Amino acid sequence: MDQLISIRPLLAVLVSLCVIPVLISASNRPNVRETWTFLAGAVKFVLVISMLPAVLQGQEIVYTLVEIAPGAALSFRVDGLGMLFALVASFLWLPTSLYSIGYMRGLKEHGQTRYFSFFALALSATIGVAFSANLLTLYLFYEVLSLATYPLVTHHQDREARISGRKYLIFILGTSIGLVLPAMLFCYHLTGTLEFSTLGIFEGQLSKPALIVLLLMFVFGFAKAGIMPFHSWLPAAMVAPTPVSALLHAVAVVKVGVFSIVRVLTGVFGLDLLAANDLGPIIAGLASVTIVVGSLIALSQDELKRRLAFSTISQLSYIVLGVALLTPEGVLGGVIHIAMHAFGKITLFFCAGAIFVASGRKYVSQMDGLGKRMPLTFAAFFVGALGVIGLPPSGGFFSKWFLVLGSIDSGQIFFLFVLLLSSFLNGFYFLPIVYRAFFAESRQGEQALSGIREAPLCCLVPLLITAALSVALFFYPDMFVNLIRTGLQIP
Amino acid sequence: MTNVFPAVVVLAPFVAALFCSGFSWLEKRLCFPTALIGLSVSAYAAFRLFLQVIDTGVVQYRMGGWAPPFGIEYRIDLLSGLVIMLVVLIALLNLAASHRSVLQDMEDRPGTFYSIYLLFVTGLLGVASTGDLFNLYVLLEITSLTSYAQIAMGDPDRGPLASLNYVFIGVIGASFYLLGVGYLYIMTGSLNMVDVAGLIEPLYSSSAVLVAFVFCMIGVWIKMALFPLHVWLPNAYTYAPVAAARVIAPLMTKVMVYVMIRLMLTVFGLDYVFERLDLSQAVVWLSTLAILAGAIMALAQHDLRKMLAYIIVSEIGYMVGGAWLGNELGLSGAVLHIVNDALMTFALFLVLGNFMYRLKGAGFTDLQGAFARMPWTMAGFVLAGLSIIGVPPTCGFFSKWYLILGGLQAGAYPFVAALILSSLICAVLFFRVFEIGFFEPEADGHRDMSRAVNLQEAPVSMLIPLGLTSLSLVVVGVYSGFIVETIILPFLRM
Predict the structure, then answer these.
(1) Of all helices (H) and strands (E), which one includes residue A64?
(2) Mean of all residue pLDDT scores within chain A
(3) Can you say whether residue A361 is alpha, beta or left, with left for phi > 0 and alpha for psi between -120 and 50 degrees?
(4) CA A467 – CA A388 distance, rounded (Å)
């Protein structure tokens, strides 16, 4: 494969890091500060986009910063897979920043400079993960992301935030130090390299039991992916301000977890090795349990953000399941769900936040009749829900489509049932919300709703944009499909 | 032209110490500038010297022109060059940070403090430079005596007792080392390290050499506070004046690790230590215990000073274990960790100094709301804490990287497990403090923009050294591959 040496991946990572001192220095002038955030976001997105044509033509963009040890450098490599993720994350930072302004100012939150600074740092780390050329670089940015998001999750600085923050760290940092780090060092000790390669890095050094242990250490170790039983940090992290939940816990953080697992499966083990040792069903089984159980728990949640959190847990495992099917269509369906789910879920989170800002309500049972007051928000919610369930006309349809094809291809019909069951459950926990918002009478009577209007424009516009894009992806999914095909070299 | 830099490095702080003690009678205000000049000259010479060493491998200097093995030879190779740079830079930065805290703690006798401080640094630099076993003992005692004195100048109630405790144990350690050197002298008739190394090879099977080795090691381990010989350390470091603790804590133990590696590699030789003796496994086990015991005892503390002291006990285990793994990766990790740990500990003690200066204490309850009150200090604290935990890209991660790989190669799985476990324990240790600084005093309800912040940041003269040190944690981390390739591996392969 053609390789192109360019410093642009590094720049794309550094942009949002370098803007942090500027943000701090402008802490007394909020408008200037937010302008800088947008500027950094725009530059970042442009840098990512500028690499797109080359990647679509099958080239890889590489840049090595410094070598730590032979075979283990801090280096970047932009391929289709990383490009897909970076595109989604860097683009969604822009509407999220707009939304943050509306949300944070609307609620007069304290510590806004801190908030925007750590948000920028988190984005640097996310792009770093997307462009990592090897496991060491990926691990570095993975850890930076864990730590950068801690002050965001615990933003309110109250007792609840403290307890949730502790849970967040124990799960995220505990697994990455306790499981991923030893697994990574063991790989390096054994093979002398950590570079991702579609062929995998092992050359028959490991027996099947050893492979299973190593695989499980990685899959559970990247706890950001929320594979059960390492999922419970995610609902706890919902104490964060909603824009944080939206971008980080529907897109950046959780997808970094899944992306890391996908990288390890495709780049460290290699799909062939997994198939030869029949390891796919183990991971697919774990993912299936998470999919079904996550959906079932989501059904029982009354707090909207918690319901979304459990839905996220379940949806993340779609991605893992897709790759674990080890068929081209399955991998395609899984990976494309990174993008499709991102647009759907961020819309849903934006809506949850907009409802909270406009009405102060966060429980599903309080939302009857709200749709008449906030028609645009709930329409967007409907579109987002379609995306997550996987119904046309939304991009989510394609991930389901490929996943179903993949499970049929692999001859594992069991997973087909898992997908169908989960889709039904998704419908059950999302669609009634929309239905009751528009058609049910408010339980507190109509006068309780008077005075509630759509959230401020800063909140409303971003969620309309993401909802519109979620629909647009139904009509134009080709670019993402091509990126994945070139990135993973699947037909 | 003879190379005078080795002499300048050691003598510049010594001369400055003499002047300082004179100025403490005549004009107290001149003490600080004198010390600054002395250490700056030394730092410049050390830098030039280090460049030469990287160029040529070894720089020798004969004191008084006497040829070894009779005269005292200063012999600077890559390892000693590295340690010298580390010592002199930390001493210099600490001096800059000390100006304010010395005025606050010891306004009546700054001259005394500065001259003892300079003598202490002289001793450390000498230990790192000398190629003579007995001269090393003398310099070691200069270092120890001055650190006893510095510690005794601290907390008026507990400082003297902590110092006395340290004196007793320190003297025992020094005696062991001296006895070991005595045996070596009897066996070989020489005190020059390189000379002894040449003469000792035919004597490998001699039990006197074995006794010499064991005595030297025990002496060094006592001085570096290897568990369970660590009991003197926590109190000594806790009750020392903060300006002294900031340099004793990062440097004293690390220089002792240097001495251990020097004895193992240069004097006795790897063949002897790892082929002839069957001690490697036992020592690695001991350091495994040290890592865990230090970390667990740190968990039980409610004062940041004590917590840091026990973390040092744990970190000593990293370096001793790495050095005794007996492979190149482990030794690289140990040497790299000398640098990294010195920087991390220094950063942490600078933070401690800022707390002591502003908050008048470092008990956990004193640190409530620290993030809002001292944001820059806390930023440095977070970076240093992450480095101790071993989060990339801070340098603590990369020394752990080499140490763990060395452990895997040697099959020392308990050591590897202890390294990972101690990372997790350190995460608990530091995030417990971060939590107190971030969440307490607990807010009632929603915090909004109008909340007043009571800023109590430390003075700039204390923040700049902290800023430089914390940044160096990341820079050294990112370039650790470079350090290993150009300094550590060439040294080990020599």
Answers:
(1) strand A60-69
(2) 87
(3) beta
(4) 12
CA angle centred on B364, ends B363 and B369, rounded to 5°:
120
As a whole number, mean pLDDT of residues B37-53 equals: 90
Minimum-distance CB partner of B392 among A139, A173, A174 = A139
**What distances in angstroms separate CA B466 from CA B36, B99, B153, one per listed residue?**
18, 14, 24
Q: Looking at the complex, does the CB of residue A64 fall below 8 Å from at least one CB of chain B?
A: no
Q: Which residues pair with B75 in a beta bridge?
A: B60
Candidates B491, B466, B44; CA nearest to B242 is B466
Amino acid sitting at position A25: S
* pLDDT score recorded for residue B259: 94
Structure tokens at B175: 């005696």
Of B481, B390, B382, the C-alpha closest to A66 is B481
Question: What span, in angstroms and rounded, lies between the C-alpha atoms of B453 and B199?
Answer: 68
Integer Cα distance of A235 and A308 in angstroms: 9
| Structural tokens at position B432 | 């417990």
- Most B CBs within 10 A among A27, A65, A68, hence the mutation to make, goes to A68
Query: Which region among A19-28, A138-147, A447-456, B480-489 has the lowest average model confidence (pLDDT)?
Result: A447-456
pLDDT given at position B443: 65
Q: B257 near B224, Cβ under 8 Å? A: yes
Q: Where are the alpha helices (DSSP H) in B106-192?
A: 110-129, 133-152, 159-188
Residue B400: what are its φ and ψ, rounded to 5°?
A: -60, -40
Tokens of residue B245, six digits:
């603790």
> Complex ipTM, two decimals?
0.90
Looking at the complex, does the CB of residue B489 fall below 8 Å from at least one CB of chain A?
no
Q: How large is the average pLDDT for residues A100-121?
A: 84
Instruction: Tell me the domain boundaries of chain B.
Output: 278-443+453-494
Where is A47: in which H helix or E strand? helix A30-50
Which residues, 6 or more positions from B198, have their beta carbon under 8 angstroms from its beta carbon? none
Region of poorest pLDDT, from A262-271, B340-349, B439-448: B439-448
CA angle B265, B270, B274 (to 5 degrees): 135
For residues A144 and A176, give the distance between their C-alpha atoms in angstroms, rounded to a whole number: 11
**pLDDT single digits (tens) B146-203:** 988 888 887 778 888 888 888 999 999 999 999 999 999 998 888 888 888 888 888 8
Query: Which residue type occupies B324?
Result: W
Work out the burial of residue B199: count CB atoms within 10 Å of its CB; fewer than 13 is exposed, 13-18 middle, 19 or more buried.
Answer: middle
Q: Measured between CA atoms, how close is A319 to chain B, in angstroms?
A: 27
Residues A174, A243 contacting (CB under 8 angstroms): no
Cα–Cα distance list, B117 to B59, B84, B142, B150, B305 (Å): 27, 16, 11, 7, 20
Neighbours of B58 (CB within 10 A): 15
- Cβ contact A139–B390 (<8 Å): no
For residues A425-462, one letter each, b for 16 or more C-beta atoms within 10 angstroms of the residue's C-beta and e for the rest, the string is: bbbebbeebbebbbeeebeeeeeebeebeebbebbbbb
Among B391, B481, B484, select the one facing A143 at the smallest CB separation: B391
With contact defined as beta carbons under 8 Å apart, do A136 and A69 qualify?
no
Whole-angstrom distance, CA of residue B53 vs CA of residue B51: 5
Determine which of B446, B450, B474, B476 to mutate to test the interface with A (most A C-beta atoms within 10 Å).
Answer: B446
Residue B462: C-alpha distances to residues B199, B334, B344 (Å): 50, 30, 16
| Region at A101 (left for phi over 0; alpha for psi -120 to 50; beta for the rest) | alpha
Strand order in the sheet with A72-78: A3-5, A60-69, A72-78
Interface mutation target, options B328, B400, B405, chain A, most CBs of A under 10 Å: B405
